[in-house]
Amino acid sequence: MPYNFKTEMNKPERLTGGHRMCAGCGAPVAVRGVLRALKPEDEAVICSATGCLEVSTFLYPYTAWKDSFIHSAFENAGATISGVEAAYKALKRKGKIKDNYKFIAFGGDGGTYDIGFQSLSGAMERGHDMVYVCYDNGAYMNTGIQRSSATPKYASTTTTPLGDESSGKVQGKKDLSDIMVGHNIPYVAQTTFMGNFKDLHEKSEKAIYTPGAAFLNVLAPCPRGWNYSPEKLMEICKLAVETCYWPLFEVINGEWKLSYKPKNKLPIIDFLKKQGRFKHLFKEENKHLLEEIQNDVDLKWERLLKKCGEV
């Protein structure tokens, strides 16, 4: 069915209000958007790796989740949800379960790009009928804003602080979406929040209802770690897309498809200057660092356009 914003927003929430996530955090927006793609008649089992989302939405005996919820350790969300999916299939074959269940894991970039990568990779390679959603906020935010392999180059974090000998993180960001495509799974997509949430919704629906393993990488800014005002969440996400820092695409059975191409690609400085973690880059002596970041964004964008057959 065509996407209808009003219809989707009128669905009952599966992540309730009253959780303890920060104002302006992208993670609960991502979760609500993904779960809204579920059909009302379908049940879901949700697994969350340790992180901001888990500690803020499930403080025993209180929960913000309407569906069955499993808290997994940092390193094994992929293994946990794939094991539940395998058990469900076995019980379904024996006629012991009649309801239809979907299996979704959520993890931040620490529990996805880094510590949890091995169990994620295993679950994807085995082809479990599940969705893994990374809410990418670019650092270990829950434990003090330490750098991760998702932290962009020259971002300031507590473990890559600014100083006489440091301009922030010196390594680039890992291309996790590309790595997931390399697992030859049916569906991989990159998305975030823009306009009426159409892109997030449609990709979430495809991920959930495509048989087999699926991976969603959702840019989910963090007001504390990125140092922006909470009300700027949507603006920052839009700038991430319009500057091509975070391009929107999907890969269906190995075929790359660009979801959005900016009419006027904005310079990366429009995205960076909204975040306090990059304020040092706007000093005169760091002009070359901005040029380096722009060149890197341009190169990756051109590569993506070729993969998607746009050039």
Provide an overview of this structure.
35% of the residues lie in helices and 18% in strands. With 311 residues, it is of the alpha/beta class. The chain starts with a helix and ends with a helix. The protein has an 8-stranded mixed sheet with strand order 4-1-5-6-10-9-11-12, with helices on both faces. The mean pLDDT is 97. It is globular and about 70 Å long. Helix 2 crosses helix 8 and helix 4 (77-93) packs parallel to helix 6 (117-126).
Task: Give the structure's gist in a few sentences.
This protein has 311 residues and is of the alpha/beta class.
Regarding quaternary structure, what we see is single chain
Mean pLDDT: 97
| Structure classification | alpha/beta
Total strand segments: 12
State the separation between the terminal residues, measured CA to CA: 31 Å
Pick out the low-confidence regions.
none
Q: Based on Cα principal axes, name the global outline.
A: globular
Q: Roughly what fraction of the amino acids lie in strands?
A: 15-25%
| Helix-strand pattern | HHEHEEEHEHHEEEHEHEHHEEHH
Biggest pleated-sheet summary: 8 strands, mixed
Strand order of the largest sheet: 4-1-5-6-10-9-11-12
Number of alpha- plus pi-helical segments: 12
Helix content: 25-40%
Compute the gyration radius: what is it? Answer: 19 Å
Considering the chains and any ligands shown, give keywords for the structure:
311 residues, alpha/beta, eight-stranded mixed sheet, 18% strand
